[in-house]
Amino acid sequence: MHGYQDKRIAAVSRAFAHQGFRVITPCVSDIDRLLIHPATIDKFAALIQAVYADRMLNPSGQPIGIFAASYSGGIAMLAASRADIAPYVNAICLVGAFTHFRNVLQFIIEQEEIDEYARYILLRNFLQQSKHHDDEIVELLNIAIQDNGFKKERPLLPDRLQTVSAGAVNFFMQLLNNASFRSELAYQAFEEINQRERWTDYFALEHRLDYVDFSVSLIHGQGDRVIPSNESVHLHALLQRRGKNSHLILTSLLDHGDLNLSKDIWRETNKLAAGFGFFINDLRAAQPH
Q1: For residues 237 and 206, is the Cβ–Cβ distance under 8 A?
Q2: What is the SS3 assignment for 99?
Q3: How would residue 195 be classed by pLDDT, with cut points 50, 70 and 90?
Q4: N or C, which end of the chain has less CB nearby within 10 Å?
């Protein structure tokens, strides 16, 4: 909900700056609006190219490093993997990113023990962009997203449910509580969008790795309830089979971006530090001396 101003991103940016790097935290409107669409890949690609070419932002003219998390991580990887963009990238670090969009879709829609925030975002996007669009339902999903994302002490959704139509309330509650109803609707909406705009092709990261000449550091929380850790495991395997420079860290210290303290905190902290270390070392190796 906080977009590029998320405190976690700000903290990571400051940490990289303390390591001596120039850090640029861009505002990408699609991400701030929680929009899911392949066109965002083009915007990320243009952003990478613009930062690389800007001699105020990148005075040495060196390929840049990219840090990105979650959905943004998958989009950043898709953009960086393009033949015309890959030469501008030296290293990329992804935290909790996706590889197979359909797998994540199935996980979020069907699994019960997930972060509902992700489900609200996915459903809102599918309903907004398909024939199932309904203004009342989209509004209710937007309120649910804000309640969850901003951790509101007094959620707005219960009061709003008292004022919308009975049909909208029934439909919305089925989306939340009836797995078969939710799955059927979500898959119908996705197939409609996919046939019209070929989302599956655009989001197919596994087929777009040939031009990856930069190092890829993958960090994923083992208990991630939004994008399962198998997504990073699979991407690492794909990169390794192609002889790419890839590092994978799975840690119990993270869920989907927040710290998850446990009795193994010191061992897990070292693992997490190693994951960032791979990325930082690869960045430094390419810096002019």
Answers
A1: no
A2: coil
A3: very high
A4: C
Q: What is the DSSP letter of 42?
A: H
R_g of the chain, CA atoms, integer Å: 20
- pTM value is 0.92
Which CATH number fits the domain 3-101+203-285, given the four candidates 3.40.50.10840, 3.40.50.1820, 3.30.70.270, 3.40.50.300? 3.40.50.1820
Mean pLDDT of the chain: 91
Cα distances (angstroms) measured from residue 228 to each of 28, 81, 113, 115, 248 = 25, 22, 12, 11, 14
Alpha helix ranges (H) inside the chain: 7-18, 29-32, 39-53, 70-80, 101-110, 116-128, 135-149, 157-161, 166-177, 179-197, 199-202, 230-241, 265-285
